[in-house]
C-alpha cells in the first residue's frame, strides 16, 4: 500500500469512527441523563433539606450558611445516583468542638431518622425519599489553602466547577464518569484507587470534553502533569498529577493507581478504535463454577494457596490497604522461601481471603547455605567448625573459593509455612494480624472450591483477568 | 580465661602441634623419598637415554645438545614416579620443520619401541625398564622470553630451580607435592586445575619450605601475588599469581582454580591444627551403592537429571573444558526455564554424564509474559492485539501499568527440555554437541542408578562433597 493510500485509509477510518463515537455517545447520553421528573424531585428534596438545615444552623450561629455540594449540585450526576450532600459552613472563629456539636445538632434536625458517622468530623447521614443524604459541618474560609480538614475544601471545588461547567461539559462529565464506571476505574476509595468525581470533572474541563479527553489519554506518557491554574507549589511522584485549582500543593489524582491510569488509556484507545455501548457498562463476571475452578487449576498447573480469616470490621478505606499490605507481606514471605509467586489477589466480604497462586509450592528437603570465602580465616574457620560435625548437613565443601553447606530446609511446602508461626514475621496489616491470631484456615489447590460460595465473582476475576 | 592464659594455651598448642608436624612429616618423608636403588636405577636409565639421544641428535645437527628436565632431573620426584623427560635442544637457526623431523628421528632412535604423540610439537613417547620416557625436541634460546612454544621454556625452569633447591628444599618439595596429591589439588591439567610441579617448587623455594608455605597459605588473602625475581611485566586476574622467574609476562599459577587455592588453604589450616598422615593420602571414596543413592535422593528431596552420551575421544585437557562448558550451558538452559539448579557435576569415562541436581524440576503449564507499558502506544497496541484473541493465553491484563499475559509454557518438566532440540541452543562444547547429535539419554531421579556401575566413585563425591 502506498503512503497516500495509507493516509487516505486512516482518514476514512477516523471519519467512520467519528460517526460511531457520535451515535454511541448519544445512546449512552440518553440513558444516563436524569430526566425532568428526576431532576425536579431531587431539586425539591434538596431545597427542603437546605431550608431546614439553614434554619437549624442560624439558630445556633447566625453567621452560618448552607450549601449543596457534589455532583447533584453541579448537575454532573448520573440518572439513578441518589446522593445529596449538604454542607453547613460555620465561620472560622467558631471552636472546632462547637462546630462539631452544632453540626451534629443541625444534622439530626434536618434528618430526624439519620445516624452519626465519622470521617474527619462527625456528621449525620440519613435517607429522605430514597435519596442518601449527608449533612456535614465545615469551616467557611477565604481560600482552600487555609483549610483545617479535607471537608473544608469541598465547597471550593463546587464553586470552581460551577463557574466553568456549562450544560455541554456537564453532559460530558456524566459520560466520562459512566465510562470510568464501565471500565472499573471510577472512585477514589482505597479499594478502587481510581478517578474521583472531582478529578473527572477537572479532566473534562481541562481537555474540553469527553472525546478530547479520551484522545489525549490514549497518548498519555505518564507522568502526566496538568495544572489548570498554573500555580503548582509542589511536585508529585504519581503517574497522573492534576494540581488542585483551589490548592497549589495538592494532587487531585494522588490516589489514582498506575494500573487505573493504564486501564483508562487502554479503554480510551479501545473506544476510539471501536466505539461501543458495552464499554460504559460495568462488567460483573459470572461467579466461577466449581467445574470451571477445577478446570482452571488443572489447565494452569499452578498451586493456589489461600489464607482465609474473619474479615476485620473496618470500612473499606481502612480494610483494603491492610489487605494489600498483608498480601504483599505474605507473597514476600513465600517468595523468600523459594515458593515462587505467580499472581495474587485479596478479597473480602464476611471473611477475607488472601489468594496467592504459586508457580512453585514445594522445595527440596535441603537448601544451600553459603558461608564466607575460605580466605577470611576467622569467619571461615568458625563456619567450617559449625557444620563439619553436623550430621544433618551436607558439606561444608568449597565452591568458587567459599564454604557451602546444604542444610535441612525449614519449610518444604508453602502450606507448612502458611500454617506456621513464621507467617506472623511478615508485614501484615494490624487488624489482619489480630484476626489471624484469632483463627485462620489455609486452603491449597482444589480446596479453593470452599471459597466459591462467598467469592465466586472475585475468583472469576482472578482466573480470567481483563485489562 | 584471662588473656595471659589464652596466650599461654595458644603457645602450648603451637608447641604440641610443632612436635606433631615434625613426626608426621618424618613419617611421610620416609615413605616418599626414593631409596638409593631407585635413584641409581633411574640415573642409569636416564644416562643411557641421554647418551643415545645425544649421538642421534649430533649426527643431524652437530650443535644440538640434550638435557634431562622435570622432577626426576631436579630430584623432586616422589618414590614410585616413573617419568623421565629428555629434551633435545636445537639452535634457533634450525627451521621448525627440520626441528620436528630431527626430533622424531632422535626420539625413535632413542626409544625404538616408542610411538609419536603431539603436544605443541610432535614428540616420541615410550617405556624403558618400567620408566615412562618422553623425548621432546625444542629450541635452545638465550632467554625464556624468546620462546617459540611452551616446551622451549622447560629447560629454563630446570636451570632456575637446579641452582636453588638444595636437598632439604627438594625433600620439602616432595612433601608438598604429596600433600597436594592427598587433598586432590596436584596437577595443572585442565581436569584438576590445581598446582603444577613447577609451581609447587617455586612456592617451596619462595616460602623456604613445606611448613612455612602451609603457614603462609593458611593466611592467604587472594589475590596472592608472588614475584620471586621482582620483574613482573603484566598483571593477572587469578586468585594466585606467581610470576615465572624465567618470564616476566607469565603467571605460573594461571590454571590453578579459586577452588583449589581455597582447598589448599583449608587443608593447610587443617594440617597445622591437627597434623596427620592421612592428609597426604589421596582419598578415593567408596563407590556409591544403589541403596545409598536411593537414600540420598530421598533424603535430599531434589531431582537429579542426567544427560549421558558417549564420551568424545579426546585427551583430558580437551575433554574436561568441553564438559565444563556443556555443564555451564545446560545449567543455564535449565535455570532460564525456571528449573532451579541446586548443584551440578560432569563426569567421564567410557560414557560422559552431565549431572544436574534440581531444586525445581516441574513448572506450571503457564508462564508470565510481560509486555510493554500501556503508555508506549505502538508497542502496547501491537502486544495487546497479538494476545487479545489468543485462546491459549490468559489476559492481556494490566499490572503496574504494563500489559501481562500468561501463555502456555514451552517445557513444564526438565526432562522435556533436555529431550528437546532446544538443548542444542545452549552453549555446548563442540565435540560434546557432536556426541549428543549422535545419541544421548536423559535420566531422572532414581534412573540415576544406571550410572552406578560406571560412575560409583564420582557419584559418591557428588552426594558427599568434601572440601
TrEMBL record, chains A, B:
InterPro entries, A to Z: CAA_C (IPR048833), CCA-adding_arc (IPR008229), CCA_tRNA_nucleotrans_2 (IPR042090), NT_2-5OAS_ClassI-CCAase (IPR006116), NT_sf (IPR043519), NuclTrfase_I-like_C (IPR011068), Polymerase_NTP_transf_dom (IPR002934), tRNA_NucTransf2 (IPR015329)
All residue ranges annotated as the Polymerase nucleotidyl transferase domain in the record: 53-157
Protein's UniProt keywords contain ATP-binding: yes
Gene3D superfamilies referenced in this protein's UniProt entry, alphabetically: Archaeal tRNA CCA-adding enzyme catalytic domain, Beta Polymerase, domain 2, CCA tRNA nucleotidyltransferase, domain 2, Poly(A) polymerase predicted RNA binding domain
Requisite cofactors: Mg(2+)
GO molecular function, one term: tRNA binding
Residue sites binding CTP per the record: 71, 74, 157, 177, 186
Keyword tRNA processing on entry: yes
Ranges where the tRNA nucleotidyltransferase substrate binding domain occurs: 172-281
Catalytic class of the enzyme: transferase
GO terms of biological process kind: RNA repair; tRNA 3'-terminal CCA addition
Annotated catalysed reactions: a tRNA precursor + 2 CTP + ATP = a tRNA with a 3' CCA end + 3 diphosphate; a tRNA with a 3' CCA end + 2 CTP + ATP = a tRNA with a 3' CCACCA end + 3 diphosphate
Keywords linked to the UniProt accession: ATP-binding, Magnesium, Metal-binding, Nucleotide-binding, Nucleotidyltransferase, RNA repair, RNA-binding, Transferase, tRNA processing
Pfam family, one: tRNA_NucTransf2
Family: Belongs to the tRNA nucleotidyltransferase/poly(A) polymerase family. Archaeal CCA-adding enzyme subfamily.
Further details from the record: A single active site specifically recognizes both ATP and CTP and is responsible for their addition.
Name of the protein this chain belongs to: CCA-adding enzyme
Protein's organism: Natronorubrum thiooxidans
Amino acid at each position: 500500500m502506498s503512503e497516500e493510500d495509507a493516509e487516505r485509509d486512516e482518514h476514512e477510518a477516523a471519519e467512520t469512527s467519528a460517526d460511531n463515537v457520535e451515535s454511541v455517545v448519544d445512546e449512552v447520553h440518553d440513558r444516563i441523563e436524569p430526566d425532568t421528573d428526576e431532576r425536579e424531585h431531587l431539586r425539591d428534596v434538596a431545597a427542603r433539606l437546605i431550608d431546614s438545615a439553614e434554619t437549624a444552623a442560624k439558630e445556633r450561629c447566625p453567621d452560618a450558611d448552607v450549601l449543596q455540594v457534589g455532583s447533584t449540585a453541579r448537575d454532573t450526576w448520573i440518572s439513578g445516583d441518589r446522593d445529596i450532600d449538604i454542607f453547613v459552613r460555620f465561620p472560622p472563629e467558631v471552636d472546632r468542638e462547637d462546630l462539631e456539636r452544632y453540626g451534629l445538632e443541625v444534622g439530626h434536625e434536618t434528618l430526624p431518622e439519620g445516624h452519626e458517622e465519622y470521617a474527619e468530623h462527625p456528621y449525620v447521614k440519613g435517607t429522605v425519599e430514597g435519596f442518601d443524604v449527608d449533612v456535614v459541618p465545615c469551616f467557611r474560609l477565604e481560600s482552600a489553602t487555609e483549610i483545617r480538614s479535607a471537608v473544608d475544601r469541598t465547597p471550593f471545588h463546587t464553586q470552581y466547577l460551577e463557574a466553568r461547567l456549562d450544560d455541554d461539559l456537564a453532559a460530558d462529565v456524566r459520560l466520562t464518569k459512566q465510562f470510568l464506571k464501565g471500565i472499573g476505574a471510577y472512585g477514589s476509595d482505597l479499594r478502587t484507587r481510581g478517578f474521583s468525581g472531582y478529578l473527572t470533572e477537572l479532566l473534562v474541563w481541562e481537555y474540553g470534553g469527553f472525546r478530547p479527553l479520551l484522545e489525549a489519554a490514549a497518548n498519555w506518557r505518564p507522568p502526566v502533569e496538568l495544572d489548570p491554574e498554573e500555580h503548582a507549589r509542589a511536585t508529585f511522584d504519581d503517574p497522573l498529577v492534576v494540581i488542585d485549582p483551589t490548592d497549589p500543593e495538592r494532587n487531585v489524582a494522588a490516589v489514582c493507581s498506575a494500573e487505573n491510569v493504564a486501564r483508562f488509556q487502554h479503554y480510551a484507545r479501545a473506544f476510539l478504535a471501536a466505539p461501543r455501548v458495552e464499554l460504559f457498562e460495568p462488567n460483573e463476571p459470572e461467579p466461577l463454577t466449581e467445574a470451571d475452578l477445577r478446570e482452571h487449576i488443572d489447565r494452569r498447573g499452578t498451586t493456589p494457596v489461600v489464607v482465609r480469616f474473619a474479615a476485620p470490621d473496618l470500612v473499606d478505606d481502612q480494610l483494603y490497604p491492610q489487605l494489600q499490605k498483608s498480601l504483599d507481606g505474605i507473597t514476600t514471605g513465600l517468595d523468600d522461601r523459594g515458593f515462587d509467586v505467580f499472581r495474587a489477589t485479596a478479597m473480602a466480604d464476611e471473611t477475607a481471603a488472601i489468594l496467592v497462586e504459586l508457580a512453585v509450592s514445594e522445595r527440596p528437603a535441603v537448601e544451600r547455605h553459603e558461608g564466607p570465602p575460605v580466605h577470611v580465616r576467622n569467619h571461615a574457620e568458625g563456619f567450617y567448625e559449625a557444620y563439619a560435625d553436623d550430621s544433618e548437613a551436607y558439606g561444608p565443601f568449597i565452591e568458587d573459593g567459599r564454604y557451602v553447606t546444604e542444610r535441612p530446609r525449614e519449610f518444604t511446602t508453602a502450606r507448612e509455612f502458611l500454617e506456621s508461626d513464621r507467617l506472623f514475621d511478615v508485614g501484615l496489616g494490624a487488624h489482619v494480624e489480630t484476626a489471624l491470631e484469632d483463627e485462620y484456615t489455609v486452603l491449597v489447590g482444589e480446596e479453593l472450591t470452599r471459597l466459591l460460595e462467598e467469592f465466586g465473582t472475585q475468583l472469576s476475576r482472578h482466573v480470567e483477568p481483563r485489562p
